[in-house]
Amino acid sequence: MENIIGGIKDSNLKLTLAFGIGIHHAGLVERDRKTCEELFVNQKIQVSYKIEKIQVLIATSTLAWGVNFPAHLVVIKGTEYYDGKTRRYIDFPITDVLQMMGRAGRPQFDDQGIAMILVHDIKKHFYKRFLYEPFPVESNLLEVLPDHMNAEIVAGTITSKQDAMDYITWTYFFRRLVQNPRNFKMAITYVVHIQLQLNFAAIAGILKSDVTFNVKTQYLGSST
126 vs 81, 181, 212, CA distance in Å? Predict the structure, then answer.
């Protein structure tokens, strides 16, 4: 290990490698990072007829999306990171936490992997639920609702405002809206929201509405 440490540039990495602990982050020079990767991922480096390796690696969260580092045990120390734009700590997306947990388990060595998450007490219940219960799939239809409404009007599926209301009730978005309205942050009812969407489309010249509440597409709407 002395020969390997001699080629390391980072002083902190030199210190930890002597105890069999590696460090991996973007601030290291490429050679130092590659050395840690070989020592940990391959679990060995042949040096003068000796096998050198490390079994503990301290890394930043970005490593979860980079090089594949399978490990028997993954410890996630905290689920927040500092956001320079807002100048506060915010939670990691669930997908990032899952990705980090996914590093646990070495197919060639382990039948199962172990992941440990260290969080504050106020978030313990959330992560217990996250780990043991499936999260519901939410709808993103609201973000593109005008496009879908226009497409259905062009296709002739929607010919009136009542048809528009009925169309929404057939969607998964409506089911989730009834069960979890807070997720969509809608301070108004979905009926009023649909009315606003139709009014906006009429102002934009995409569709036309008459006094009998019938709707039809304009040239601009049919060409989009």
Answer: 18, 19, 50
